[in-house]
Amino acid sequence: MQGGRFHQHLSDSQNFITNRKLIHRIIGFADFHANDTVLEIGTGKGHLTEELCRKAGMVCSVEIDRKLYDSAGKRLAQYSNVKLIYGDFLKYDLPLKGDYRVFANIPYFITTQIIDKLTQAPNPPTDIWLVMEKGAAKRFMGIPKETKKSLLLKVNWDMKIRYHFRREDFHPMPGVDSVLVHFAGKARPDLGKNEYYEFQKFLDRSMKYGICNKGGPLTKRQVSTALKQAGLPHAHEDGVTLYIQWLCLFRCYQKIGKK
Q1: How many whole angstroms separate alpha carbon 49 and alpha carbon 181?
Q2: Which helix (H) or strand (E) holds 85?
Q3: C-beta separation of 82 from 61 below 8 A
Q4: What is the pLDDT of residues 162-208, one digit of tens each?
Q5: Quick check: 240 and 246 in contact, CB under 8 A?
Q6: Other beta carbons less than 10 A from residue 84's beta carbon
């Protein structure tokens, strides 16, 4: 994407939260402590950053807009526990070691790229709090129906909408509904790294052919037996709709071997 076009999209996505009471409330959900390092994507005018500085031990905030970066720098000059970084978050090097957490009101047009970067990092955050478009949040959570992306995210992350905003909470007011989503990293992922890649292949094949159709990984009998033995409801005609069902059938696939 060319620079001018990128910055046009960026400008369209800059919807700020400035109400101090609301900021205090939503950051309070994360329960930050003095030993926490927090990464913020998009410093904006510095309103969220300022509250993060009051709650966390260290705040690293990345801002691509030079005017906002300069303005926020003046606003945050009194805080010694903040590091402002001028640059593109998508090119920013995430920490390779140590724990860190994320809290951000992100540009909606790069939501997928941001989530991919954070969740697929060699050293991912312990948890992620993102203000994002409601429809996108539901898709990542597999609502109303699981996708490959939502299923793969659930291997390592628990996701929950923690707050529903009013459009009037932002300025300028966005044309979509927004929510605060919490991605909590699982202490023990549901699959190991090698299993995760096998699960990807299992999903690709299942979604291309149908899980128990010709070319699919399992037979109808195998699907029915596996779900019954696990005490799970049978798969719907339009495909398996629950993450736990997909995981169960993948385990079955592992046991019987690849056809």
Answers
A1: 18
A2: strand 82-86
A3: yes
A4: 999 999 999 999 999 999 999 999 999 999 999 999 999 999 999 99
A5: yes
A6: 18
